[in-house]
Amino acid sequence: AQSVTQLGSHVSVSEGALVLLRCNYSSSVPPYLFWYVQYPNQGLQLLLKYTSAATLVKGINGFEAEFKKSETSFHLTKPSAHMSDAAEYFCAVTLSGGYQKVTFGTGTKLQVIP
Amino acid sequence: GAVVSQHPSWVICKSGTSVKIECRSLDFQATTMFWYRQFPKQSLMLMATSNEGSKATYEQGVEKDKFLINHASLTLSTLTVTSAHPEDSSFYICSARRDRGKVSPLHFGNGTRLTVT
Hints:
- The structure holds 2 protein chains of 2 kinds.
- By secondary structure, chain A is mainly β.
- Chain A contains no helices and 11 strands.
- In chain A, strand 6 and strand 7 form a beta hairpin.
- The termini of chain A are far apart.
């Protein structure tokens, strides 16, 4: 079984400040990890994914995440927040080894203060 | 690439009626699609896995007779909420994997906001 925990349901940052959204995972086998973004009344858009290659993964819109096995973490970062980054972010995990269900975290709503 | 289209984007219906939601993969074939339900300020809850040409696999606690899923072709899955009630009001999202047999990301439709009055 697998699960993800997102610490902080709401995060507020000033425009231009560092964005850090936390995600910790639990998995019995090597996981594949994803970050998705959701804008109001829309579906989810993939930001980036970790599939056992490079531990530092770069995604769209300037976001990146680092897989740290020792910490079972996959935190999402962006050096400088933009107003358009305000949205809800979901961390998700699935198991490696083929076709598996995806489990989502509870989400973190990012507010960007001008 | 990997576009998933969901229709309608919003629907209002009266209690007791049925509502059909369509999910299409526009530029790829999806042998498997997934239906999620999202309550306000909550995460996505997997309702069922829709398999082309066979019966859907429902998650525990999801009424299969209430949420009918049909996956008649490689590019279309439908979710029908039968005899809808106000408690069925929610945001329903479909998704699909582009590559079968590999761990590829899910591609999501834009969701359907269902309001039952």
